């Protein structure tokens, strides 16, 4: 649901790790002059975690701390947030939720380049096959604001950037205070 109190919209980019969330979020942020928050990076920089997960080699996020940190910024609008989970963010934060999808072969290549462990690769590939991120977004946000986008190539990235740019201009025309 659009929030009439903000002058610029907020966008969430979600999807399985490696689908290209940060790449798309960075290009959108720079072309539309939005603040970009990569939740993984933010959690590390500001120590917004509860501990370390040895099995998956990642920080266990303290979700309340992240929400407290971002809420004053997000309520002003003009932000793009990227993260692989989506259900714990306040629904009111976002005007558009993009779910990126990529073919398994492409994801595998990207994980191998990152030297991911086999358990991490299998877990992420299973997530993509089972469309876990898409289902989570559908459970958590109004379907009208969700856009599923393919992210297999540089051309896809450019097309997705254009689609979001057009959506942004339309939002600004109809919702700006
Ligand atoms: N549309 C695309 N086509 C081809 N390669 C891409 C595309 N998007 C991203 N990549 C490449 O895939 C890798 C992962 O991209 P990126 O870090 O943006 O993904 P991510 O979804 O943010 O990952 P994570 O959730 O682990 O942070 C990078 O090497 C990036 O250059």
Q: State the CATH superfamily name.
A: P-loop containing nucleotide triphosphate hydrolases
**Helical fraction:** 40-55%
Overall mean pLDDT:
95
Radius of gyration: 16 Å
Tally of strands: 7
* Count of DSSP H/I helices: 7
Strand content: 15-25%
Do you know the CATH topology?
Rossmann fold
Q: How can the largest sheet be summarized? A: 5 strands, parallel
Q: Which blocks of ≥5 consecutive residues have pLDDT under 50?
A: none
Mass-distribution shape: globular
Listing every helix as H and every strand as E from the N terminus to the C terminus, the arrangement reads EHEHEEHEEHHHEH
Top CATH class: Alpha Beta
Unique bound compounds:
adenosine-5'-triphosphate
How do the strands of the widest beta sheet line up side by side?
2-5-1-6-7
Q: How many domains make up the 3D coordinates?
A: 1
Main structural class:
alpha/beta
Q: Under the CATH scheme, which architecture would be assigned?
A: 3-Layer(aba) Sandwich
**How far apart lie the N and C ends?**
16 Å
Would you kindly provide a written description of the structure presented here, covering whatever features stand out?
The chain has 177 residues and is of the alpha/beta class. The protein has a single domain (10-164), classed as P-loop containing nucleotide triphosphate hydrolases (Rossmann fold). The chain is 48% helix and 19% strand. The chain contains 7 helices and 7 strands. It has helices spanning 21-32, 39-46, 63-74, 104-113, 118-129, 132-140, 154-175; strands at residues 10-15, 35-38, 49-53, 58-61, 79-82, 96-101, 146-150. Strands 2-5-1-6-7 form a 5-stranded parallel sheet, sandwiched between helices. It has a two-stranded antiparallel sheet with strand order 3-4. A hairpin with a 4-residue loop joins β3 and β4 (58-61). α1 (21-32) packs across α7 (154-175) and α4 runs antiparallel to α5. The protein is globular and about 50 Å long. The two termini are 16 Å apart. The mean pLDDT is 95. The structure holds adenosine-5'-triphosphate (ATP). Adenosine-5'-triphosphate binds next to α1 and α7.
């Amino acid at each position: 649901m659009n929030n009439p109190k903000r002058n610029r919209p907020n966008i969430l980019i979600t999807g399985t790790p490696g689908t290209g969330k940060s790449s798309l979020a960075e290009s959108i942020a720079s072309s539309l002059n939005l603040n970009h928050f990569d939740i993984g990076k933010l959690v590390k920089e500001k120590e917004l975690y509860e501990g370390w997960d040895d099995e998956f080699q990642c920080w266990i996020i303290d979700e309340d701390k992240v929400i407290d940190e971002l809420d004053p910024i997000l309520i002003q609008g003009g932000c793009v947030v990227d993260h692989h989970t989506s259900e714990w963010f306040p629904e009111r934060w976002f005007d558009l939720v993009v779910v990126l999808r990529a073919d398994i072969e492409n994801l595998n290549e990207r994980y191998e380049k990152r030297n991911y462990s086999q358990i991490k690769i299998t877990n992420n590939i299973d997530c993509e096959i089972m469309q876990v991120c898409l289902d989570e977004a559908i459970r958590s946000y109004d379907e009208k604001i969700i856009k599923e986008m393919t992210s297999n190539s540089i051309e896809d990235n450019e097309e997705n950037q254009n689609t979001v740019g057009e959506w942004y201009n339309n939002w600004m025309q109809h919702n700006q205070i």
